[in-house]
Amino acid sequence: MSDTLSLAALADGTILSPFTRLRHLLDGVTPGHERTIDLTLGEPRETMPSFVTAKIAEAEALFAKYPPIRGSDELRGAIGDWIGRRYNLAGVVDPASEILPCNGSREGLFYAAFAAVGRKAGAGRPAVLMCNPFYQAYLGGALASGAEPVFLDATEATGHLPDLDALEADTQLLSRTAALYLCSPANPQGAVASQAYIARALALARAYDFLLFFDECYSEIYSGAPPAGGLEVAAKTLERFRNIVVFNSLSKRSNLPGLRSGFCAGDAGFLQMLFEVRNLVGPQMPGPTQHASAAVWAEEQHVTANRLAYAAKYDVADAVLGSRFGYRRPAGGFFLWLDTSSIGDGAYTALTLWKRFGVKVIPGSYLAQTGRDGTNPGAHFVRVALVHDVRTIREALERFVHVSA
Question: What CATH class does 52-299 carry?
Fold first, then answer.
């Protein structure tokens, strides 16, 4: 349970990466197909913007200088302009004080826990709450900052987002909460938080003075209407961005996971604290990367093409899976969250898929933790990453539907 987890869990093997656990599960097992297909890693494989390398070369002289930890004016301005276009917030976000670039959203999400826990005064061990299933950086940040990680199950019964009714009733927990991590579109379920849901989570953050960390990494991959943004909701309130910080990156939006370029934006006072943390222990984003990133945030044509590519993959999933394994076309992201309870738990299904068909997927339990009610919300699921080309996705899913045959 979460109250037994501490920093030692990262050192003694109690907490392992889902990918390490999968390697252990499949170690020594011969795949059942000569052409194996790996659907585990959420690494985009669509075409990156063609101008990126030229932009890096254009600014190569900056490799000889220490880059500014706050990021260049050019980059912060480009991010601010993008937020303005994407969320109808033109001129609302101050690039100088309300935007802080980071080396991918993971770095920002991890270090943000330090500042959030550090500012939390009161009796008892600070708590860091997170949606469950969760992104590993949330847990790493909680443990490294000495907080208690608390897992809020996100299941079909709660719309695949944490139950805010249950959370609001737990005033003792809220009183020692330092931060709440939410992800929309959710990884892995693809659920999208409504403006009302975001507003309610933000109201709780303000009532109990904790930080709402809103992970929007998949914000540009969606099936219907564009997902609501945290700053979009907060800007409508009198307190603007107090108690909220959003995180995003170019990894998924622009197929640039190797560029390691992201940002956090929102509460200016908190971002100043986070700046000081990063200024002590955080790595700067290289100057040429900042220059190239500014150009990528300013260009949208490749983003539209990317979204269309994922739509084609979901069309294949619609056709091959139908309603099998509880499949419904997700509202956002590029994962399938498939219920394999008719076969067995997620680990058994992953092992069987590899052994019989040479398809590699992640067991859902590896992406979640036993919750406060003693159950693991991912136990009977597997996550499938739709990152290959359409033909490969079709072949993989056609093998998948025969797993119980």
Answer: alpha beta
Q: Residues 92-99: what's their mean pLDDT?
A: 98
Only one residue has tokens 């159950």, namely 375
Report, as an integer, the average pLDDT of 242-251: 98
Report pTM. 0.95
Regarding beta strands 177-183 and 127-132, do their DSSP bridges make them parallel or antiparallel, or are they unpaired?
parallel
| C-beta separation of 196 from 232 below 8 A | no
> Listing from the earlier edge strand, what are the strands of the sheet with 381-385?
335-339, 381-385, 362-363
The overall average pLDDT reported for the chain is 94
Q: Is the pLDDT higher at 311 or at 8?
A: 311
The CATH superfamily of 8-47+302-400 is Aspartate Aminotransferase, domain 1 (3.90.1150.10)
Supply the pLDDT for residue 9.
Answer: 76
Task: Give percent of the chain above pLDDT 70.
Answer: 98
All CATH 3.40.640.10 domain ranges of the chain, comma separated, are 52-299
- Report the C-alpha dihedral over residues 363, 367, 371, 375, rounded to 10 degrees: 0
Range(s) of the chain covered by CATH 3.90.1150.10 = 8-47+302-400
pLDDT on residue 270: 98
Q: What is the pLDDT of residue 1?
A: 42
